[in-house]
Amino acid sequence: MTILVTGATGLVGERLIPRLTEAGEDCRALMRTGKQGPAHATAVQGDLFDPASLADAVAGVAAIIHLAAVFRTSDADLIWKTNLEGTRSLIAAAKAHAPDARFIMASTSNVYDRRSARPARESDSVGPEEAYPASKVAAEKLLRDSGLNWAILRFPFVYGDGDGHLEMLPSHLGTFGFHPANRVSTIHHRDIATAMKLALAGAFDARIVNISDEAPTTIYELVGLVGAEMDPSAEAMENPWHLHVDASLARRLGFRPVVATVYQAAREGAL
Predict the structure, then answer these.
(1) Are the C-beta atoms of residues 79 and 134 closer than 8 Å to each other?
(2) Is beta strand 183-184 parallel, antiparallel or unpaired with respect to 217-218?
(3) How far apart are CA 206 and CA 102, in angstroms?
(4) Residue 176 — pLDDT band, cuts 50, 70, 90?
(5) How much is the pLDDT for 37?
(6) Whether the Cβ atoms of residue 80 and residue 180 lie closer than 8 Å to each other
(7) What are the structural domains of the chain?
(8) d(CA 122, CA 57)
(9) Which of 5, 88, 144, 231 has the smallest number of CB atoms closer than 10 Å to its CB?
(10) DSSP string for the chain
């Protein structure tokens, strides 16, 4: 099938597209004018800030995988413009030019209330306190109300294939105030592809689905896996379920991670 991928040159997109093309899919990569597309996809011109420019990009596609997002910035206006208004433009183009396409959007486990009393479920209320997750919640609602055939995959901490995400973690310990015993859910890039292939086949239609591997891992252990150190602590921990998701719905719908734990990834040299 022909699939349009936004965010094709991002950390997720550049690792997902080769896996989709290996599986026989025909991928288009949405690129702004003058930008180079990834090797495994056909570059199509378009700009999420210019709805009219998206017509040719979406025409004739069977599916849209919407990965494009902004979050590593303090510019809240840019976050909202990209994540909400960009999604609005893409939805409008799909409705006008590819109304039967399956629209799959990547979202984040950061949308859940950090004060949750258990691993977060898709049916839980959301309580984002920052621009990035708040903008994703708003974009999710746009898609759910669009009338399109949609699926929303909420990803936790994404890592692997040398993306550098784990290596960045030690530098963020003070910013986010992690307790070393905080367990966070994780997902390897291989299993983003696993989940996307299921979504493309319709397994997650009209659902929001948490996607994660088998073993939420402590911040202390994750930092250690990249050769760094974190001060240990036996003090009481606030918000023990923050960033820990319940992925049982995904399992019921057929998702089985290929990389079950970060330790498996480390053994296989796939961090």
Answers:
(1) no
(2) antiparallel
(3) 10
(4) confident
(5) 83
(6) no
(7) 2-267 (3.40.50.720)
(8) 31
(9) 231
(10) -EEEEESTTSTTHHHHHHHHHHTT-EEEEEE-TTPPPPTTSEEEE-BTTBGGGGHHHHTT-SEEEE-----SSS-HHHHHIIIIIHHHHHHHHHHHH-TTSEEEEEEEGGGB-TT-SSSB-TTS-B---SHHHHHHHHHHHHHHTSSSEEEEEEE-EEE-TT-SHHHHGGGGHHHHT--TT-EE-EEEHHHHHHHHHHHHTTTTTT-EEE---S--EEHHHHHHHTT-------S--SSTTTT-B--HHHHHTT---SS-SHHHHHHTT--
Residue labelled with tokens 């890039």: 189
Contact 41, 35 (CB under 8 A): no
Kindly report the backbone phi and psi dihedral angles of residue 184, in degrees, each rounded to the nearest multiple of 5, phi listed first: -120, 145
Q: Which of 196, 80, 63, 73 is nearest to 142 (CA)?
A: 80
Question: What's the Cα-to-Cα distance from 88 to each of 33, 83, 91, rounded to whole Å?
Answer: 20, 9, 5
Place of tokens 């105030």: 177
Q: What is the pLDDT of residues 29-76, one digit of tens each?
A: 999 887 888 888 999 999 999 999 999 999 999 999 999 999 888 889
Cα dihedral 260→71→168→212 (10° resolution): -10
Report the alpha-carbon distance of residue 93 to residue 14 in Å, rounded: 23
Axis-axis angle for helices 13-22, 189-200 (nearest 10): 60
